[in-house]
Amino acid sequence: MNLRVLLGVSIALLAALLGWRILRHEHVLAPARADAVGGVAAHPAAQVRLSSAGRAPSASTPDFSAVKAQVLRKLAAWRGESDELRRDALLAELLALLTDENVGEIVRALSPEWLATPFGEISLRRWAALDHLAAATWLATVPGVTDYQAGLVVYGWLGQDRTGFHAYLATLPEGAWKQDVLKIVTNDALLLKDGAEAIDLLLRQPAAGQRDEMLGWAATEWARQDPVRAAEWARQIADPALQARLFGAVTVGYAWKEPQQAAELLVASAPREGVDRNVLSSVMNIWSPQAPAAAAGWVTEHLAGADQLLAIRSVLTAWGYADFTAAQNWTSNLSAGPLRDQAERTLRKVAAAHEGREIGD
After folding, report:
1. What is the C-alpha end-to-end distance of the chain, expressed in Å?
2. What is the pLDDT of residues 106-156, one digit of tens each?
């Protein structure tokens, strides 16, 4: 056999050997790749990508029993572990077992004790984000539920699915759970700056000091959005004391939108005993930084007596800090009398504050 033939045979044998090694290497790497894909697939976006690759969906309900058993074993290990770093590692391992598909089944498998752990609370929040109705319906049956746990399943529901939440609320019997849900979702409505919704929810709750205080917050927020409707609602409150408080809250909310109209509403609707001076001060404190000259002129023309002196003090305090010269010029044009005396006293106090001193009014 000549040299050329021997060289050809050697090259062929070498190619075959390399091909066999490459195939064997691919075979060894395949499980590792599968494991890596499985680790990523826990993320919802990764699941979408994998499912779009043609993986056939399961024809039957998945069996999560093995995962639940693993969760319970790791929770027991987490509770018995004293090393904080190891506890954190175990919690990370537990959270890695959660998927959108199994989180509801895992939460249902937790005892009240396990539900109160960080893992239980994180799992409950994740389930509620996926299905508020299922999570809330189940949690209502669990004994000893805390306000925090109730909040995990209710917060965000109103903004995410208002119709669905109200449908659920309509099914609830009177009792502690319904009241808990109402309190939580009222805070949600206030965070959403939906005063009308918050008021509706609050009026379904028993009368109490905290409820009435929250009604004031809701009335103020509603008036910032729709002062006319909010004022009409406040006028219909049967309890005179509560009506006065809520009307004041509406007026303050109105002032953030239209301060002069709010001040006029306050004066026009004042009872015989006079204007609520706390509300008057609030309105002036909102109006004065925006348009001090207009506020001062209105006080001069529309108020009298103690109300006028209180209001001009608020106006000139804000004006004096913003533009002392302009406030002083306006005061110098007032006629001699109680109004001018109060204005000058207020400006002397502001001038002292500019110099770092404090004097009496």
Report:
1. 121
2. 999 999 999 999 999 999 999 999 999 999 999 999 999 999 999 999 999
Cα→Cα distances 196→130, 199, 328, Å: 27, 5, 43
- DSSP characters over 100-158: TTTHHHHHHT--HHHHTSHHHHHHHHHHHHH-HHHHHHHHTTSTT--HHHHHHHHTTHH
Report the length, in residues, of the chain.
361
d(CA 299, CA 313): 10
Residue 42 DSSP symbol: T
pTM of the prediction?
A: 0.61
**Alpha carbon of 199 to those of 10, 177, 189, 219: distances in Å?**
89, 19, 9, 7
Mean pLDDT taken over the chain: 83
Angle between helices 227-235 and 259-268 (to 10 degrees): 20
